[in-house]
Structures are given as C-alpha cells and as structure tokens.
Amino acid sequence: MPLFRKFLHLIFPAACAHCDTPLWDDPVPFVCRTCWDTLVPIAGPCCPHCGDPFASQVALQHSPTHECGTCRIKPPAFTQTWSLFPYQSPLKEAIILFKYRGKRSLTKPFLQAMIPALPLLPTCDVLIPVPLHRDRLREREYNQSLLLAHGLSKHLNIPLLLSCLLRSRATVPQTSLSKKERFTNLRKAFTIDNVSRIQGQRILLIDDVFTTGTTLHECAKALRKAGSGSVYGLTLARML
Fold first, then answer.
1. Which of 155, 143, 76, 71 has its CA nearest to residue 113?
2. Same domain, 19 and 76
3. Are residues 210 and 181 in the same domain?
C-alpha cells in the first residue's frame, strides 16, 4: 500500500490538509505523518455524565461523581458519553474531508486511532450509529457514523443495529448553528421504527463529533421513551 500511495502522489501530487506539506509516504490519506502524530486523546478528569473535560486535574479527586454545571441543571437523556479526541487540527480538517468531501478512505486511520484510545466501556447489547435523514443520506451517499460504527462493532464484538433509530425530520447541520439554536434544532427529530428491537437493550450510540451533546441527547431520549435500557454515547471527537 505505501508503494501504491507513493505512485499516486507522484502522478497526482497532494498536500497535507492541515499544513500543506506535499504528501509522499504518509500513512494517513490527506494528512502528513508529522501532523497526524500530534493527535493526542482527551485526558484528565471530565464530567462523568457528558464527558466535558474539567479545567483542574484534581476536579474529581474528592468528589468522583461531580458533574458539570450543564448536566446538573439539565441532565441529558444518555447515561454517559465519551469523546476520544479534541476537535482540533489536524483531526478537524480530516473529519471535514471524511464527512463532507466523500473521503471514506479515512475510515481506517480513524478507527486505528480510536481503538487504542477507547475507555473501559460498560457492557452493551447493541451498537447504533446516529442516523442521517434520508435526504442527507441520498445527497452524501453514506453515513460517516455508520462507517465508524461498523468497525467498532467488529472490534468490540457488539451487534450493529440498523434501521431502528431513524432521523424522521430533516435538520440543519449542528456546526452551522449558534449554541442556542443547536439545542432546539434536533428536537423531536428522531423516532424508533421497531420498538421491540431495542426494549430493555443497553445501547452504545456512535457519532463522529460531539458539539453540544444535543444529538446524542435527542437520540437517547427517543430510545429511552421506547423502552430501551441505559444509553451510552461514543464519539471520535469533541468540540472544546
């Protein structure tokens, strides 16, 4: 594969999506080795509910279950979420290519980065990717969260459940909205197609980016209302 990539770069010169350095034998498509090696998982204490990192390294030292202000004021419907990397360069540029420019070849390096960074996850019965609305899926031709979920399902040995959680209402992308608009944009946007498939099931939701947590909250709310067990969330990146 490296020789083939060198040949492609020789015929079709390409540059790193972050630093614009010409690519040659770099292991990740569209990102140079130097930039990709700066990728560091989110570390340190964080909210045990939504995963929001705390500023202080001793935040949970005397109160391990201490939640962030947002979760205390308005608890999300999900039980717990984890985000593996900060949504910063070079990962930010790579996710944009993956999500909006059809660069599905980034699936493998994303999974290779995610798997070593996985926390100790609770036992779950099924894994569900956050769905796209049918119009967005028709336009994009693939669901980026499903690509990640498929690989994680194999690694974690958790069955992948599709066509059960549906995005029944078309919405504007969360990243294009203000913080206030994000909280209302996805309200009642998700429905359950086959209730019996998720009743009593402990579910792990998979998405690409955690912005305000509204997407995972609305998905979890629909699932819990339909009778599911605990709902957890896992995302590749998180906006800090």
1. 155
2. no
3. yes
Residues 112 and 214 in one domain: yes
Q: Where in the sequence is the domain holding 218, given as residue range(s)?
A: 39-238
Question: SS3 breakdown of the chain: % helix, strand, coil, rounded to 5?
Answer: 35, 15, 45
Q: How many CB atoms lie within 10 A of CB 77?
A: 16
Q: Are residues 58 and 168 in the same domain?
A: yes
Tens of pLDDT, residues 32-55? 999 999 999 998 899 999 999 998
Strand order across the 80-86 sheet: 80-86, 231-238, 203-210, 126-129
What pTM was estimated for this model as a whole?
0.90
Indicate if the alpha-carbon torsion angle 46, 152, 171, 77 is positive or negative: negative
CA distance 94 to 106: 8
Within 13 Å and on the Cβ side, how many CA atoms surround 231? Answer: 25
